[in-house]
Amino acid sequence: MTTEHLTQLGRAVEAPDRPEDAVLERVPNPQNDTLYLARFVAPEFTSVCPVTGQPDFAHLVIDYAPGDWLIESKSLKLYLTSFRNHGAFHEDCTVAIGRKIFDTAQPKWLRIGGYWYPRGGIPIDVFWQSGPAPEGLWLPDQGVPPYRGRG
């Protein structure tokens, strides 16, 4: 597998200040003939409220069935970090992340669960998927309990 096209892996890279400045990269999938699920979990995702500027926190779970490409994980970490000072509502953050990953990796299927901690006393959970899951794909539970302090 060649990685010379990657701009971040194996290099010191500053975290981007905004999602639109982040570069999400992909690598060839050596198992592209196999239907399987890959999962990324970001239990400490942060963004800011676009109205108050106060921090928002979420536990993101991203499941995808790779096709010809895999998401390169360092670039994903930097992309997610770019939301730290980004003002957006929970729904916008969650769906935008799912769509960006889907557009970049072009997987057979993708779903994202955004399990947001309360804002104004109300937890907001946001779910998006690219379409029906492929037949035969093992879909484990995302493992995040309903809000009770998000143990």
From TrEMBL:
Domain of life: Bacteria
Residue numbers binding substrate: I71, E72, S73, H90, E91
Root EC class: oxidoreductase
GO biological process per UniProt: tRNA queuosine(34) biosynthetic process
Catalytic activity reported: 7-aminomethyl-7-carbaguanine + 2 NADP(+) = 7-cyano-7-carbaguanine + 2 NADPH + 3 H(+)
Pfam families: QueF
Assigned GO CC terms: cytoplasm
Enzyme Commission number: 1.7.1.13
Subcellular compartments: Cytoplasm
Location, primary (coarse class): cytoplasm
Gene3D superfamilies, per database record: 3.30.1130.10
UniProt xrefs under InterPro entries: GTP-CH-I_C/QueF, NADPH_dep_7-cyano-7-deazaG_red, QueF, QueF_type1
Job of this protein: Catalyzes the NADPH-dependent reduction of 7-cyano-7-deazaguanine (preQ0) to 7-aminomethyl-7-deazaguanine (preQ1).
Family listed: Belongs to the GTP cyclohydrolase I family. QueF type 1 subfamily.
Protein name: NADPH-dependent 7-cyano-7-deazaguanine reductase
GN (gene name): queF
